[in-house]
């Protein structure tokens, strides 16, 4: 029996569970002996002119070795916008020169001998500011009354698509429109950002930092600092979660490397959680308008999604998120007409980047909300409306009106499985009974169906490399360009090699995240790793067997075609003559047995699924509690179900968190209101039930494993299901819409307003 | 100032600044980096260790306050022969960790939960771990791991130094 598809426990766990992983702040590399600690001096004001920065007192503080401001960095070019279609005027300074644009914008850096001295000294830096009006929220930004980058002349960072034609909804019996907020959330990997850097006598800099792909981070740092890429050696230690927010490098990492050069000493930086919550990229942050039209018997004829993306103070990945949202606008549905348009705007808030799902959850949340509103308007069960409009099962790729080519899917089956596993009919009966009794705790049932794009960079045909070497002692080493930070690649990649070679998983070491040893790699993001990096390891193992067969054939005086792998003994043997064999280890002892290969997937893959969430809402207080979540998440062939389930669990929880609890808040002056974990309502164990996972696996033809991505699916499906369940729990009281997070206060207000006879067509329940 | 404490069964005496947190003392002075720091508001529990039989967040305690105490960190939890503690073993078998950053604190807090309640329900485990945050696992498999560890009996709520542990 193949090891693939079995629940192999992680080989990385024993160390993690006895000595702990080694994160960037844990490093004891001798090159970092005597390292200075960097502490950033950051703006406490969202938008202001800088009148002066006085570092004199700080320089005299205990332990201070140096204090740097923008004036010390004139040899570094400013940070250009990350995409060529963004106007060059939206550039960022390493340290602010004349303007601060969000609370947390970096003004100075203090280097101290010891960690605690940095905070003391940073407080001694005196910054004199002339406060400007702050732009908070996309609606304000769009007015262009206050402009963050006056040279650009507008707050619009980028615009995509055209308005819908005037006759777009002609012929619809019913049209529903709703403003929907997909709120800004904080990724909050439990490990905050951290880096260390040291320059060698050879003129090269070694940078350790927490990230999701060493090669990309290295490339960025080299480019930003104007260094030849060969001069940067980037090492990714163990990483305590990323969720998209650790893609690439952040300017802080490059700046710390630069300051190590200026100071002539190794430098380390580990941010505090409050610094993390105000300065690490946030996610989501879309204000959407959905409009949906169709017939009274449930057929949707036209759907439009218009999005304003909050980009934050400086353009980062957030600017392009709405393009993914647009691509996935129709989701699982076969709408005859689809329209999408978006723009991204600069505001005086933390810049926005990728967060688990990155653009796709926003598309799913929008279309699922629209489907529920449409169902409510025509008085049809939301499951039935979905069934009527889903793209039917397809085996040949299906291209949508937005130009996405879905590889394989059976959305109706996914929905039916989820409904059946949840006991949908019984749930509706129970709901009805509670409504009739007027129970204090009402039941809400939310359904979502989703399809998302994973391994989207497949389209670019970049490919992913893998190297596999068998050693004479019977062990093997895999080098990969993916970058695990919780996903368990050390185990799964070993399974993929073991599956071909028979070398036990415990004897296979998987290495990643060292750009000197592994110069090329795409990292881990966008649910790409298994379908690209894993597929590359599989391919390397297949090729290694071929190489070994040729060599074994000579040694055994046999025809290579007559040789088969005996997995039990990790050897090649002559078919039908088990006594005549040679092990991979023996072949490696003769001559290095190693394969390096590149796998290029045919195209992106489109995992899909359906979620049913059940909530109980206390109608008096508005507090909704998730009591059940049933999920079907079809990610094609599953290599390690134990780890795939873990990905689903984590994703589901983050979706529930967004639907019910989490939101980054600013006051109207741009002051963050959620800058510690005491204020930011990070979801805890008590706010979640255990999850009910249903299996479904529709392989993709895009890679030999048949695998699609699983990292983000849980979040994409659960967010709208839970939001919908909360709304459903009070729908009988007249509530049609509640924005996320559906907090007690929001739900309570929605119920009050509905009972007072107010209309909720505009969705504004704040 | 000088501070002495027994850490994972070993007597340790060091110079510390009066304001130094126990979490930083363990990490920076004693090199016990399994204990992690995930927040600055005593919210995340990544720093949880066992001090004199109680699971505590080591970022809420000054090193000086642990004078004379028995401290157990994740590094001191496995048996002398390296045999995993039932909670450690269950975290592996149930896949109760992903990135691992919460894990040290989560494991130590779980020992505390099981000391106080050797046979907890799903809900009781969740309530016991409310002060420990995890971003990766959705808590599902952490809860499964604690329930699994409970099957090992009272030893799951004990640390090797045979201290009494309570939540
Ligand atoms: S670091 Fe101690 S509770 Fe977060
Ligand atoms: S395993 Fe990553 S925070 Fe818990």
Describe this structure in words.
The complex is a heterodimer of chains A (766) and B (167). Chain A is α+β, with helices and mostly antiparallel strands. Among the domains of chain A are: 329 residues, Aldehyde Oxidoreductase, domain 4 (2-Layer Sandwich), CATH 3.30.365; 144 residues, Aldehyde oxidase/xanthine dehydrogenase, molybdopterin binding domain (Aldehyde Oxidoreductase, domain 4). Helix content of chain A is 28%, strand content 24%. Chain A contains 18 helices and 28 strands. In chain A, strands 3-5-1-12-9-10-11 form a 7-stranded mixed beta sheet, with helices on both faces. In chain A, α5 crosses α6, α9 runs parallel beside α17 and α13 packs parallel to α14. The C terminus of chain A is likely disordered. Chain B has 167 residues and is α+β, with helices and mostly antiparallel strands. Chain B is 29% helix and 14% strand. Chain B has 5 helices and 5 strands; from the N terminus they run ββαβββαααα. In chain B, strands 2-1-5-3-4 form a 5-stranded mixed beta sheet, with helices on one face. In chain B, β1 and β2 form a beta hairpin. The radius of gyration of chain B is 15 Å and the shape is globular. The model of chain B has no long low-confidence stretch (mean pLDDT 95). The chains are: A alpha+beta (766), B alpha+beta (167). At the A-B interface, α1 and α16 of A face α1, α2, α3, α4 and α5 of B.
């Amino acid at each position: 029996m193949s090891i693939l598809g079995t629940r192999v426990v992680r080989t990385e766990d024993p160390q993690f569970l006895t000595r702990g992983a080694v994160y960037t702040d844990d490093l004891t590399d001798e090159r970092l002996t005597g390292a200075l600690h960097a502490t950033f001096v950051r703006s406490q004001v969202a938008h202001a002119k800088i009148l002066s920065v006085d570092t004199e007192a700080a320089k005299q503080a205990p332990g201070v070795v140096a204090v740097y401001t923008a004036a010390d960095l004139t040899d570094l070019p400013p940070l250009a916008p990350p995409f060529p279609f963004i106007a060059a005027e939206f550039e960022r300074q390493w340290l602010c020169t004349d303007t601060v644009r969000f609370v947390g914008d970096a003004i100075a850096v203090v280097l101290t001998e010891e960690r605690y001295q940095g905070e003391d000294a940073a407080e001694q830096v005196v910054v004199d500011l002339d406060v400007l009006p702050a732009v908070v929220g996309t609606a304000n930004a769009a007015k262009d009354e206050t402009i963050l980058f006056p040279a650009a002349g507008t707050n619009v960072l980028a615009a995509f698509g055209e308005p819908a034609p005037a006759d777009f909804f002609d012929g619809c019996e019913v049209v529903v429109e709703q403003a929907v907020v997909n709120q800004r959330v904080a990724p909050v990997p439990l490990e905050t950002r951290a880096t260390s850097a040291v320059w060698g006598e050879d003129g090269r800099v070694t940078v350790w930092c927490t990230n999701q792909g060493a090669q990309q981070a290295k490339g960025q740092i080299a480019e930003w600092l104007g260094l030849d890429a060969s001069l940067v050696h980037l090492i990714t230690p163990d990483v305590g979660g990323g969720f998209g927010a650790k893609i690439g490098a952040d300017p802080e990492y490059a700046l710390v490397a630069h300051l190590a050069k200026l100071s002539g000493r190794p430098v380390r930086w580990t941010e505090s959680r409050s610094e993390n919550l105000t300065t690490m990229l946030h996610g989501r942050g879309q204000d959407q308008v959905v409009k949906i039209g169709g017939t009274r018997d449930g057929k949707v004829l036209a759907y439009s999604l218009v999005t304003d993306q909050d980009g934050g103070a400086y353009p980062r990945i957030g600017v392009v998120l709405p393009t993914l949202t647009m691509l996935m606008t129709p989701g699982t549905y076969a709408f005859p007409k689809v329209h999408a348009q978006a723009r991204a705007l600069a505001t005086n808030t933390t810049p926005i980047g990728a967060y688990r799902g990155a653009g796709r959850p926003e598309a799913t949340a929008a279309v699922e909300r629209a489907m529920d509103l449409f169902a409510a308007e025509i008085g049809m069960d939301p499951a039935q409306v979905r069934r009527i409009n889903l793209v039917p099962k397809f085996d040949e790729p299906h291209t949508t009106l937005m130009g996405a080519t879905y590889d394989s899917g059976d959305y109706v089956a996914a929905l039916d499985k989820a409904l059946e596993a949840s006991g949908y009919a019984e749930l509706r009966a129970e709901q009805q009974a509670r409504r009739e009794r007027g129970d204090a705790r009402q039941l809400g049932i939310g359904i979502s169906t989703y399809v998302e794009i994973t391994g989207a960079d497949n389209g670019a045909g970049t490919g992913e490399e893998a190297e596999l070497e068998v050693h004479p002692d019977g062990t093997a080493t895999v080098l990969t360009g993916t970058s695990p930070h919780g996903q368990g690649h050390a185990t799964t990649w070993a399974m993929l090699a073991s599956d071909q070679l028979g070398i036990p998983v415990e004897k296979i070491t998987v290495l990643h995240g060292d750009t000197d040893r592994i110069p090329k790699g795409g990292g881990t993001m966008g649910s790409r790793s298994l379908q690209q990096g894993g597929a590359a390891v599989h391919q390397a193992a297949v090729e290694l067997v071929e190489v070994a067969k040729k060599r074994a054939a000579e040694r055994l005086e046999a025809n290579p075609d007559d040789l088969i792998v005996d997995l039990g003994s990790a050897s090649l043997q002559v078919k039908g003559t088990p006594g005549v064999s040679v092990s991979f280890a023996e072949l490696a002892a003769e001559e290095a047995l190693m394969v390096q290969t590149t796998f290029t997937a045919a195209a992106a893959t489109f995992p899909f699924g359906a979620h049913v969430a059940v909530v109980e809402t206390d109608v008096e207080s508005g507090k909704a509690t998730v009591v059940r979540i049933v999920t079907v998440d079809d990610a094609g062939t599953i290599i390690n179900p134990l780890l795939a389930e873990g990905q689903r669990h984590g994703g589901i929880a983050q979706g529930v968190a967004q639907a019910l609890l989490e939101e980054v808040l600013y006051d109207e002056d741009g002051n963050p209101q959620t800058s510690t974990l005491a204020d930011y309502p990070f979801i805890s164990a008590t706010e979640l039930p255990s999850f009910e996972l249903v299996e479904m696996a529709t392989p993709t033809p895009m890679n030999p494993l048949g695998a699609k991505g699983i990292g983000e699916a849980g979040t994409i499906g659960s967010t709208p299901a839970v939001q919908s369940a909360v709304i459903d729990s009070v729908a009988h009281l007249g509530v049609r819409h509640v924005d996320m997070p559906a907090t007690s206060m929001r739900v309570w207000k929605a119920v009050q307003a509905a009972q007072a006879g107010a209309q909720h067509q505009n969705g504004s329940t704040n | 100032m000088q501070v002495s404490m027994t850490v994972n069964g070993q007597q340790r005496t060091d110079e510390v600044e009066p304001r130094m947190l126990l979490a930083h003392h363990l990490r920076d002075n004693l090199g016990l980096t399994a204990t992690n720091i995930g927040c600055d508001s005593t919210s995340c529990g990544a720093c949880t260790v066992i001090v004199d039989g109680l699971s505590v967040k080591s970022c809420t305690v000054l090193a000086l306050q642990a004078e004379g105490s028995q401290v157990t960190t994740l590094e001191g939890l496995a048996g002398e022969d390296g045999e995993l503690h039932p909670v450690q073993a269950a975290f592996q078998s149930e896949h109760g960790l992903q990135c691992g950053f919460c894990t040290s604190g989560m494991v130590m807090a779980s020992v505390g939960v099981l000391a106080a309640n050797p046979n907890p329900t799903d809900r009781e485990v969740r309530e016991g771990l409310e002060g420990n945050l995890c971003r990766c696992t959705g808590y599902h498999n952490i809860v499964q791991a604690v329930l699994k560890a409970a099957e090992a009996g009272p030893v799951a709520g004990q640390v090797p130094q045979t201290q009494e542990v309570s939540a």
